[in-house]
């Protein structure tokens, strides 16, 4: 099998060297070029035709985001961002994912050499995933779709007398930041409470929650633990902890745990889904979105066995059809849905109509 060819783009000679060494140490990939800025990268892309690009954000001659926007419009290809672990870096990285980057590597602020070397396996795995990923062009119609949905979905929601005891439980990984946004932007402000586990470093989850809060009709925040789960609110698992659903009297509440990673992840989708199975049962609708691996499959099966109704994102709209495929394979999913229809199908399921759907 041909090796994955990688072009490294970073203004730091040290980081170019470190990434090159990490990538070339893998048996199935090789660096075919290293560029100090987007202008040089542009020429290398034309002549070398790499399979995957690693891209820094802050660079001379052209900002990495500006370059990414042009690249995804003119010559879409798999891109893994290399971003600093700062609040500003988090915002820029989320913007890069919005523009079509497949994933990102968190570049440490201190001791860059040992920091990147510690992430060697993660970097290599993300390059492999990027090579196989479905490249998503930036969504230019989301705002219009959101306005249309704001007129129609609340009517569906209210017409069928939805209970405020209902909950929406969401899990995602690679490609999930944009999938979650596209799903939640179509939800009405009085929808049931939502709990979300997205695989993401802790420096990024608060920025992600704040971004969603600005875009969505519902209120979105990073979970603090101990909050009552309220309608019209979404709670994002912080990157340092598992998020669990619990009961306190008649109320649903959040709980955070720093127990060991599950499926190599903390937060883990399985942990969240299993807690929903235990405490919400038939009052929950589970949603599993794009992502690599099998995290969430076993927990979603537990949810279904407890009476929940579960939906998976379809392959055509996934960046990586890993987690949804695994959930479908174990029999955890009631319905497979394109991302553009997910909000409407979830609300229909919550209204009691979803049980009429054909099971997969």
Automatic annotation (TrEMBL):
EC number: 3.1.1.61, 3.5.1.44
Modified how: Phosphorylated by CheA. Phosphorylation of the N-terminal regulatory domain activates the methylesterase activity.
Subcellular location: Cytoplasm
Stored Gene3D superfamilies: 3.40.50.2300, Methylesterase CheB, C-terminal domain (3.40.50.180)
Domain Response regulatory per the UniProt entry, residue ranges: 5-122
A single BP term in Gene Ontology: chemotaxis
Keywords assigned: Chemotaxis, Cytoplasm, Hydrolase, Phosphoprotein
Catalytic machinery residues: 173, 199, 295
Catalytic activity: L-glutaminyl-[protein] + H2O = L-glutamyl-[protein] + NH4(+); [protein]-L-glutamate 5-O-methyl ester + H2O = L-glutamyl-[protein] + methanol + H(+)
Main localisation: cytoplasm
Modified residues (4-aspartylphosphate): 56
GO annotations of cellular component type: cytoplasm
Domain CheB-type methylesterase residue range list: 161-353
Coiled-coil ranges per UniProt: none
SUPFAM superfamilies assigned to the protein according to its UniProt record, in alphabetical order: CheY-like (SSF52172), Methylesterase CheB, C-terminal domain (SSF52738)
GO molecular function: phosphorelay response regulator activity; protein-glutamate methylesterase activity; protein-glutamine glutaminase activity
A Pfam family reported for this protein in Swiss-Prot or TrEMBL: CheB_methylest
Family membership: Belongs to the CheB family.
Function, as annotated: Involved in chemotaxis. Part of a chemotaxis signal transduction system that modulates chemotaxis in response to various stimuli. Catalyzes the demethylation of specific methylglutamate residues introduced into the chemoreceptors (methyl-accepting chemotaxis proteins or MCP) by CheR. Also mediates the irreversible deamidation of specific glutamine residues to glutamic acid.
Entry domain remark: Contains a C-terminal catalytic domain, and an N-terminal region which modulates catalytic activity.
PANTHER family per UniProt: PROTEIN-GLUTAMATE METHYLESTERASE/PROTEIN-GLUTAMINE GLUTAMINASE, PROTEIN-GLUTAMATE METHYLESTERASE_PROTEIN-GLUTAMINE GLUTAMINASE
Record's protein name: Protein-glutamate methylesterase/protein-glutamine glutaminase
Species: Nitrosomonas halophila
Taxonomic lineage: Bacteria, Pseudomonadati, Pseudomonadota, Betaproteobacteria, Nitrosomonadales
Gene (name only): cheB
């Amino acid at each position: 099998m041909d090796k994955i060819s990688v072009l490294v783009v970073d203004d730091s000679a040290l980081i170019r060297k470190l990434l090159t060494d990490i990538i070339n140490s893998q048996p199935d990939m090789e660096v075919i070029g290293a560029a100090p800025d987007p202008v040089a990268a542009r020429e290398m892309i034309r002549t070398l035709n790499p399979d995957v690009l690693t891209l820094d954000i802050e660079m001379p001659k052209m900002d990495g985001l500006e370059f990414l926007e042009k690249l995804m419009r003119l010559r879409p290809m798999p891109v893994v961002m290399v971003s600093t672990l700062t609040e500003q870096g988090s915002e820029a990285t989320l913007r890069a994912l919005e523009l079509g980057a497949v994933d990102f590597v968190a570049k440490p602020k201190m001791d860059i050499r040992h920091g990147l070397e510690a992430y060697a396996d993660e970097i290599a795995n993300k390059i492999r995933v990027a090579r196989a990923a479905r490249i998503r062009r930036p969504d230019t119609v989301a705002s219009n779709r959101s306005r249309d949905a704001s007129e129609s979905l609340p009517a569906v929601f209210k017409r069928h007398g939805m209970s405020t005891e209902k909950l929406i439980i969401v899990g995602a990984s690679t490609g999930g930041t944009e999938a979650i946004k596209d799903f939640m932007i179509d939800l009405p402000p009085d929808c049931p409470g939502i709990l979300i586990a997205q695989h993401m470093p802790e420096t990024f989850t608060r920025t992600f929650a704040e971004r969603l809060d600005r875009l969505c009709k519902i209120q979105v925040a990073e979970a603090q633990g101990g909050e009552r789960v309220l309608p019209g609110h979404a709670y994002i698992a912080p990157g340092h902890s598992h998020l669990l659903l619990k009961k306190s009297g008649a109320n649903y509440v959040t709980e955070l745990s720093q127990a060991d990673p599950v499926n190599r992840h903390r937060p883990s989708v399985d942990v969240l889904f299993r807690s929903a199975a235990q405490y919400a049962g038939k009052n929950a609708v589970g949603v599993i979105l794009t992502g690599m691996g099998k995290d969430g499959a076993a927990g979603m099966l537990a949810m279904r066995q407890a009476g929940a109704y579960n939906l998976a994102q379809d392959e055509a709209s996934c960046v990586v059809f890993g987690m949804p495929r695994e959930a479908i394979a174990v029999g955890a999913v009631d319905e497979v849905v394109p991302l553009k229809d997910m909000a409407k199908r979830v609300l229909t399921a919550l209204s009691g109509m979803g049980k009429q759907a054909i099971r997969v």
